[in-house]
Amino acid sequence: MRGRRTADEGGGLMPVVRTNGISLGYEEYGAGEPVVMVTGTGAPGRVWRAHQVPALTAAGYRVITFDHRGFSPEGASGQPFTLDDMAADLAGLLTHVSPGPCRVVGFSLGSVVVQELLVARPELVRRAVLMATIGRADMLVRAMAAAEIDLCDSGVALPPRYAAYVQALQYLSAETLGDPDGLRGWLDVFELTATGSSAGMRGQLGLQVIEDRRAAYRNIQCPCLVVGFADDRVVRPRLAEEVAACIPGCRYTEISGCGHFGYLEKPGPVNSAIIDFLGEPDR
């Protein structure tokens, strides 16, 4: 059910839905059939505003973005939660914003959440795009998660310029790293966001460390598109391609010249892949 409205960080008011024992803040843009966007670890729903929301609304969709649990309106509760909890949160939002099966787009941890929803509540999803996703956590994913948890729990705040440099190496492609003008803008963004609170992210850290779920994903019947990013150092493309290989009828496409943040780094080809797939007739 629809609850109160809460202020977003832009100063506006966003509607709130009460679901699965928590309140989720969400925003809607445009008109038409709904597309729900599911962000990755620690990211608020507003990250989709720059590129995906304008492209999808121009294509005639009503776009719904939301903040995962741990962000406003309730903030970080300190209580642990699981991927199943996040999938149940998403299920509640989908039933609230769409009278029938809905198109869903996920990124990174958000894609894993969508995959778990496709196993638990397949009737809620009409088509799914899964960007930078995994069906199992390999050694590097586990090492990255453990390191991020240690850093978060240590209370150490990296100097913003150093944090920006590390994030650029981790999340961007060689093409962007070699472009001085483009890289400067990214470093400015990373430096600015490095000073933000990590409280909302802490509960999500480690949730991408999943056991091998490929056998369960073989039961997914929803039409799916997996998108890999060629220079992704966080989720190497072969891990995303593994997911596509185990979902019946799933397609895989790989976008060149972009790293883990491919949907922001190369929004043109990424948006085209999303819109083309979402617009296909149902089988």
From TrEMBL:
GO terms for molecular function: hydrolase activity. Gene3D superfamilies: alpha/beta hydrolase. Keywords: Hydrolase. Residues 35-271 form the AB hydrolase-1 domain. InterPro entries: AB_hydrolase, AB_hydrolase_1, AB_hydrolase_fold. It comes from the Bacteria. This is Hydrolase. It comes from Streptomyces paromomycinus.
